[in-house]
Design a protein that fits this description.
Layout: H1 10-67, H2 72-99, H3 102-106, H4 109-124, E1 127-131, H5 141-162, E2 166-173, E3 177-184, H6 200-211, E4 215-221, E5 225-233
Parallel strand pairs: 1-2
Antiparallel strand pairs: 2-3, 3-5, 4-5
């Protein structure tokens, strides 16, 4: 006679769910780190290979221009080539920044956040300020990348949903925790929810922060804007 299969108790289900959640959090954290490493390597290759080639082309074009006859048609064509080459150089630099902010690696989190705020304000045409510690914070590379990605996602949501005129990025170092806040003066948006399946950016950010034992909260205040807060323990 076959023995009856043991019944799964509620305690067993809770344990299985907890184990599954922990496994998924670890996997998503690993994927996020791999993604960051790939973006960093690609940006570096674009800088070292494509950037160097573009710089060499610019120099060769300048030398060629000096050797050409002073024919107006030829000089106009060279000017067109120089302008086109400058556009390619700028596009290459912009793609590098979108992939990986090298200020994070060479100057630290504070410089990277300040650069992000400045570029975002120029691109979207409204006031964005930064409140940052006087000295750069002492944190791991994973923590600094997560906080920079949090600021990027927060500002992206401001641009897409908030209808705001101003936004602010705040970084606080309490000694025990790193706290990054992105807030705006927009209309508030109840559809921005860390649990909503349509908010993939926030959901991925939440898992990235959870992997570091941190928390992500979004407070929607109708007609008074939205506050996104990321807290990461030391």
């Amino acid at each position: 006679m076959t023995a009856p299969a043991p019944q799964t108790t509620e305690t067993d289900l809770v344990r299985l769910v907890a184990e599954r959640t922990e496994d998924l959090t670890e996997l998503l954290g690993h994927l996020a780190n791999c993604w960051d490493d790939e973006r960093r390597q690609l940006a570096r290759k674009m800088h070292d290979n494509l950037g160097s080639s573009l710089t060499a082309l610019t120099m060769h074009l300048s030398l060629l221009q000096q050797k050409l006859p002073q024919d107006q048609a030829l000089q106009d064509r060279v000017l067109q080539m120089r302008n086109l080459l400058a556009q390619v150089v700028n596009a290459n630099r912009e793609m590098q920044l979108n992939l990986w902010n090298d200020k994070l690696e060479f100057l630290g989190l504070k410089a990277a956040l300040a650069d992000l705020v400045e570029r975002f304000a120029e691109e979207h045409g409204f006031k964005v300020s930064a409140s940052l510690p006087e000295d750069d914070v002492d944190c791991t590379r994973q923590q600094s990348v997560a906080l920079l990605r949090a600021a990027e996602e927060g500002l992206r949501n401001v641009a897409q949903h908030a209808m705001a005129s101003t936004a602010e990025v705040i970084l606080d170092d309490t000694g025990d925790e790193l706290v990054l806040t992105v807030r705006d003066d927009g209309i508030g948006n109840a559809s921005v929810d860390t649990d909503s399946r349509s908010c993939h950016g926030l959901r991925m950010l939440r898992e990235r922060v959870r992997f570091l034992d941190g928390t992500l909260t979004v407070a929607n205040r109708p007609e008074r804007g939205t506050i996104m807060t990321v807290t990461i323990p030391r």
